[in-house]
Amino acid sequence: MRRILIHPIIKFNFQEPLVFTYNGRELTGFAGDTIASALIACGITTFHHSYKLHRPRGFFCAIGNCSSCLMEVDGVPNTRVCITPLKGGMIVNTQQGKGKF
Ligand code: FES
Fold first, then answer.
1. 64 Cβ below 6 A of ligand 1
2. Do you know which InterPro entries this protein is assigned to (predicted)?
3. pTM above the 0.85 mark?
């Protein structure tokens, strides 16, 4: 698990696990996670591939200002997972190309 467990300022709540699905796999995050932080904690760092050259893209700005973390969440393409709070039961998929509406 790639996760900060103890921090001098921020308190983490690991009491409320949230199960979600990523590309058909069941993964677990925690209340307070974004989708991106939960994926990274599970070792997943490639969120989609660039449209033209198909280069891997992942966590970059972490504040919702780029397009590096776009994924399909509950059927909605182009969701910025770095700013989207994780909820239990979410279905998160790697997006192909520009995403289908
Ligand atoms: S990492 Fe830039 S918008 Fe999510």
1. yes
2. 2Fe-2S-bd_N, 2Fe-2S_ferredoxin-like_sf, 2Fe2S_fd_BS
3. yes
